[in-house]
Amino acid sequence: MMKMKTARNLLLPFLAVLFLSFTSAHKFYVSVTNVVYAEEEDAFQITSRIFIDDLDDLLEERYGIKSKLATPNESKVADEYIEKYFRAKFAMELNGKPAEYNFLGKEYDNDVVICYLEIPKVGFPTLKSISVQNEILTDLFEEQQNVVHLKWKGHKKSFVLIKENNKGMLNL
Fold it and tell me: What would the DSSP string read from start to end of 72-121?
């Protein structure tokens, strides 16, 4: 009887660990975008940090390409599709008008891809409002959160944008 009780006491924790190992671990779906006003260039310099595996999954799901980001076999059209995706899902307005930006490229840092964008000649002294719309990855991951930090002349404003609330507005 004692052996059975001991066996049960050892078996229950083992079964609990085994059961929990088959449930998926919670994963955070987040990107961080920094929009910084560079006074000497009168430009907004934008960096967006996205997990490589999430962007890889997105490119395959949305465009049907196996991008294999950050590998020696990376698709030759990966940058083209990343830029296309950004143009569809990331936008800024200055004084209520769409701002054109240049997609400068990307680089990798561990498990993150950093995308570089720039809005030149913003005419900052005449700006009354800035809005940022960021829907990056919200079409693939319901839990996706896009953190946006806007920095200008010693000021900082941050937004957490989600699928249902994907736009942040700043009045200067």
Answer: TT--TTHHHHHHHHHHHHEEEEETTEEPP-EEEEEEEETTEEEEEEEE--
